[in-house]
Amino acid sequence: MTSSPPASPHTTSPAPLKGRGATYDPHNRFAVTHSEAVDDGWWQEEAPTTLATEVREEHPKTALSWNRSPDLGFDRSINPYRGCEHGCVYCYARPSHAYWDLSPGLDFETKLIAKTGLVERLQEELCKPGYVCRPINLSGNTDCYQPIEAEWQTTRRVLELLLACRHPVTLVTKSALILRDSELLAEMAERRLVRVFVSLTSLDANLKRSLEPRTASPQARLRVIRELNTVGVPVGALLSPMIPGLNDHELESLLDAASRAGARTAGWMLLRLPHEVAPLFEAWLEAHYPERAAKVMSLIRQCRGGKDYDGRFGHRFRGEGVFADLLAQRFSHARRRLGMAERIDEGLDCSQFRPPTAQGDLFL
Fold first, then answer.
1. Cα dist. 22→110, 144, 309 in Å?
2. 3-state secondary structure of 305
3. What distance separates the 2 farthest-apart alpha carbons in the chain?
4. Is residue 232 within 8 Å of residue 186, measured between CB atoms?
5. What digits encode the pLDDT tens for the residues 130-179?
6. With 0-12 CB in 10 A as exposed, 13-18 as middle and 19+ as buried, what is 314?
């Protein structure tokens, strides 16, 4: 094992694996050393064409994650899972896997961590005397309805607790699994305790399969909007990420489709490529869209002051420059034309909150 600069993804990226977004595992940026596989001419087993999902457990000390970001409409969030099997290659949460001595690449979507005891920790935090109720965001980092939720059901139990103590919540998802909880969400909606946002990236199923391999299809996400709207759950569309030169031409058609399905609000975000996400995304482009890879990266850098990413508050979600401004103008015009509101979380009622151990819970 030697210490040396990491190799370029152009030379280390194997062929894409079936059902996975990342094409390789970048090195952990916190590691002092790293190893590199080299063909020495001896016989080696063939690399697998698929990778199984592994789930390990974590016993968290706290449930709520807090932030003071001026770019976010919430100051607290809950993430039942670390890593995400959806495998979206562009996911801004990938770098967080490095804190667990795992790679932000394939490890992020195949080596997942489920938080056990999360509901109990949340109950304890909501009972603290100084707790002030404001909406909690579910899926602030990874999707709370990713495939392993079907087995672990942590998200559902969190929602059941929040309903019991009348605590408002917002949700963002790409998964049709949320429809499992339609009745629960409808009951919360009756009390003005929930807002749901469905993330829409493309109406092109072929693009979706490589960009977001284990997410719901475009038509399934529109069905989620339609069915949640039918049972009275306020639902909006989040066009994220908008990728210059790849899916930005779909902006108006995505909004049209979401509006027809019943989305009441809409928002958008520009592609973000922090830390290891930039080389992962560029390697993905070269594997799936080599003819336009250079153009896409050029447009991204034009929106980021010549860099792959600009993480400054006020810039990271929207970018800057002519192309970013044009995206913002197109979105604003299309949203107004369709009569959709901006993505806001107003209307959620925090006045009903009562701590989980309140005596009134005995009569639920």
1. 10, 20, 19
2. coil
3. 72
4. yes
5. 999 999 999 888 999 999 999 999 999 999 999 999 999 999 999 999 99
6. exposed
d(CA 338, CA 330): 12
pLDDT digits 0-9 by tens, 299-309: 999 999 999 99
Give the type of residue at 313.
Answer: F
* DSSP per residue, 310-352: ---TTTTTT--SHHHHHHHHHHHHHHHHHTPEES--TT---TT
Residue 72 CA to residue 63 CA, distance in Å, equals 19
Residue 186 confidence (pLDDT) above 60: yes
Closest CA to 87 of 210, 172, 247: 210
Provide the token pair at 126. 């909501």
Copy the structure tokens of residue 293: 């890879």
pLDDT of amino acid 39:
55
Is 211:179 a contact under the CB 8 Å cutoff? no
Torsion from C-alpha of 300, 7, 108, 201, nearest 10 degrees: 20
Residue 344: closest CA among 353, 335, 352 = 335
Pairing of the two strands 81-82 and 111-115: antiparallel
Query: Is the bond preceding 80 in cis, omega lying within 30 degrees of 0?
Result: no
